[in-house]
Amino acid sequence: ASLAAMDAMGGDAGDRLVKTLASPRLDTVVSAAFKLSRSKCVEAIKKGQVQLNWEVSEKPGREVAEGDVVTFRGKGRAKVWSLEVNRRERWVVEFSLFK
Question: Of the CATH numbers 3.10.290.10, 3.40.50.300, 3.30.200.20, 2.60.40.10, which one belongs to the domain with range 3-98?
Answer without folding.
Answer: 3.10.290.10
